[in-house]
Amino acid sequence: MNDLPHTALRGALHLLWVSSLIVPLVSVLREPSALRWLGVLGLLVVAVAFAVTLRGGPLWVLVAAVALSIPLVAPVGPDELSTWAWIGGAAAGFAPLLLTGPWRWLAAIGGVVLSGLVGFFVTRDHTTYQMIAASVGAAIIATAGLPMWFAGLLGQARAGREAQAELAVSEERLRFARDVHDLLGHRLTVIALKAELAGRLATSDPERSSAEAFEAQRLASSALEEVRDAVHGYRAVDLSDQLEAVRNVLQEAGIRCTVTSAEVGGEHATQLALALREACTNVLRHSHATWCMIDVALADAEVRLTVTNDGTEKDFVLGNGIRGVRERLAAVGGQATAEKSGDVFTLQVVVPT
Predict the structure, then answer these.
(1) Least C-beta-crowded within 10 Å: which of 19, 119, 262, 326?
(2) Which pLDDT belongs to residue 2?
């Protein structure tokens, strides 16, 4: 829980828990005897245990604190305020939010039943205790359950974005690996056979051995040229196709994407397309963006690509991808600049025409 939505949710859960302890605190403070201080201690133990649990501590700490609060808090305060019933209701309400599976509902029911037992031994009125516990628990579940569900969906959506970006990169790597394998597999096998044959014929038939060695050299040069062509084809991408692909990926991830583009071709388009890929990856992996604007413009003998998005993480720092883009652009006289203002991040790439 280190980003803004989860921090806000955690704060809301703390507020709910503190609210559920207001009535017990008032009841404890109205106790005329010295038992009030034991009640205050019990409430403090429960409050601290919940804070520890919500920050990732073991759940048994909260369970032990609730159990410890029964002898400390339950006998304290006026009977009509049903002091411990509010703690039991809070435990019943937060159990489904902190546990998973069928245990969550069993624990919630257990909290209500336990409140009734405490009420029976303290005031002989188990019904009132159970009604209070059930009402408090239902209110907490209704208030916090929906935001927690949405927070879970947000986490799943973010994981989906990252998986989608990683899958696209993996598919491209596999495609290139297949192309290289198809190009080199057969050629290298033939070259190996030619070299082996030239070695065997070196003493018995020098003329043929020389011919086979020359053929192996010719095949190696041809294979090298084909690999260079494959690498060039891998790097040379169509900018308009890449813009459309990026827009589709972002929109499928729930990000509103606006694209404006001038006609750009040749090596400039290739450099911009590679930078655009990296920008799209950053939006998917390092932000909670709701919108993204992409603009490609021609001006003053240069091509300018600007990618702007919101939802940038506070601790976002430029990674190896952006540094790689800068190095490639420097080789052709271009440059890339990045700027962050609030949660809005802007990447601008400039390539001379």
Answers:
(1) 262
(2) 39
